[in-house]
Amino acid sequence: MAERLSKEYVIQQVKAHKDLIRDASDRLSDVLYEGRKQLGSHLELGQEYSLTIRKIIHEIVSELSIIGGFCDNWTKRYIQETTLIIGAMVIPTRISYVHALMLEYWAVSVNSIIIDYNKTPFRLSDLKPLLSVLEKAFNRKPS
Which of 49, 76, 91, 103 could be bridged to 45 by S-S, CB 3.0 to 4.6 A? Predict the structure, then answer.
C-alpha cells in the first residue's frame, strides 16, 4: 500500500514550486523588458527573445502543473485551460508585442495566486478571473 504524504510535506512542496514560479516570472519580466527595447517595425520580439520567453513559459507551466497535481479537479481544469491559451501565444517563431504584454500579465497573475491549504485537495481560487481575461482577449468561449 502506498504511503500518504503528510499535509505539511505537501505544503512545503507546493511552496517550493511557487517559489520557482516567482523566480521564472522575474526572469520573464527581465527578458520582456529587454525584448521590448529591440522591437522591430512589425512589433514582434526577436527570435532569440521569443525562444527565451518560450522556455521560461514552459518552466512556469510545468511548475503550475505540478502544483495543480495537489489541487482539486476544478483547479486542474482551469490550469489546463489557462495553459492551453498561453501555449498558443508562444507557438509563433516571433512573439508579438501584444502577446508579450499578455504573457507578462499572466506570469504576474500566476505568481500571485493564493493557495487555500485549509482543504485537501488544495484550491487556487484566483484562476477563474485570469482565465476569463485570457478567453476574452482571444475571443475564446469558456469550456
Answer: 49
Q: Which of 105, 94, 93, 114 is nearest to 138 (CA)?
A: 105
Give dist(CA 127, CA 124) in Å, integer: 6
Number of domains in the chain: 1
> What's the CA gap between 107 and 22, in Å, rounded?
8
Domain extent, residue 106, equals 9-137
Mean pLDDT, rounded, for 59-76: 88
CB of 114 closer than 8 Å to CB of 126:
yes
31 assigned to some structural domain: yes
Residue 4 domain flag: no
pLDDT tens string 74-96: 888 888 888 888 888 888 888 88
How many residues in the chain? Answer: 143
- Supply the pLDDT for residue 130: 62
